[in-house]
Specification:
By secondary structure, this protein is of the alpha+beta class. The protein has two domains: 110 residues, Homeodomain-like (Arc Repressor Mutant, subunit A); 149 residues, Alpha-Beta Barrel (Multidrug-efflux Transporter 1 Regulator Bmrr, Chain A). It has an eight-stranded antiparallel β-sheet with strand order 1-6-8-7-3-4-2-5, with helices on one face. Helix 7 packs parallel to helix 8. The N and C termini lie far apart (51 Å). The relative contact order is 0.14.
């Protein structure tokens, strides 16, 4: 029991570090400041972080900054030098080299030919057969969950909190599957008001305590779109699924939110190898 409580204390400290990083991604983040946030010795805190989180703090900051930059590249008209500066790089060249190393394309190429580009093209041509859709009937899924308000691109922040809380409650499932439910249309709702929920399936007999809540993902018929690529690119996949495929499919959407299931994670694979199953609930025929 003491080991579990001690681990929870350290996880809480590291969560404060992640909170700080999200709030200061466009600022100069100093390692000594992070040590103070973590309330750990500046001589040792980074070794603790690396061992517990599976990546260095430098890798975490770079990954989060590049992920947000990818979102701007795919979903905005911000100039490349502006994106480079907001991502913490002193020059567009330095940003371009780092971005290409992580995403396999230069920022300009990514903006034009990233995985979102194929969905943009299918939207323009109204091609409803351009991507494979699987029809699946699922049983209800009981999940441990924590609500998230704000940018969908930051749902991973809440997922970290969920995993920490489940570990503290000895409620973590062996496979540690992660899902997310999205309630609002980001084209209609201001980003600061977007509602979502980080979820992880748990067995029926598992007891959950605050801040974790139970969430039941609806059972029934779903259309599943398997998406390969960075999370930042997925907005146009949703637009295609709901605006092109659905009207041409003959199906009606059910009164339930879309959810995503993540088959791997950014800590495991490069962004272009991320695999996400997007599940659209449908009414039974």
């Amino acid at each position: 029991m003491r080991t579990s409580k001690a681990l929870t204390v350290y996880e809480t400290r590291l969560n404060r570090v992640i909170d700080y990083i999200y709030e200061h991604l466009e600022d100069d983040i100093r390692f000594d400041d992070l040590a103070e946030v973590a309330c750990l010795s500046p001589w040792h805190w980074h070794r603790v972080y690396t061992a517990m989180r599976g990546e260095t703090i430098t890798a975490t900051i770079r990954r989060l900054r590049l992920s947000r930059a990818a979102d701007w590249l795919a979903n905005s008209d911000l100039a490349l030098d502006v994106i480079a500066g907001r991502a913490g790089y002193s020059s567009a060249d330095a940003f371009g080299r780092t971005f290409k190393e992580a995403y396999g394309k230069s920022p300009a190429d990514y903006r034009q030919t990233g995985s979102h580009a194929a969905f943009k093209a299918a939207l323009l041509t109204q091609d409803g057969a351009g991507f494979p859709i699987s029809m699946e009937t699922l049983a209800p899924i009981r999940c441990a969950s924590i609500a998230h308000t704000g940018s969908y691109m930051q749902i991973d922040h809440t997922m970290e909190r969920l995993l920490t809380a489940l570990a503290a409650q000895d409620a973590m499932a062996p496979d540690r599957r992660m899902m997310a439910v999205f309630y609002d249309d980001p084209d209609l709702v201001p980003v600061e008001n977007l509602r979502s929920r980080a979820c992880s399936p748990v067995a029926d007999g598992v007891t959950l305590a605050f801040p974790v809540e139970e969430a039941i993902l609806r059972g029934g018929l779903y259309a599943r779109l398997r998406y390969r690529g960075p999370y930042a690119d997925m907005k146009d996949a949703y637009r295609w699924l709901l605006g092109v495929w659905l009207p041409q499919s003959g199906h009606e959407p059910d009164d339930a939110p879309v959810f995503e299931a993540y088959l791997n994670s950014p800590q495991q694979v490069p962004p272009n190898e991320l695999i996400t199953d997007i599940h659209l609930p449908l009414r039974a025929s």
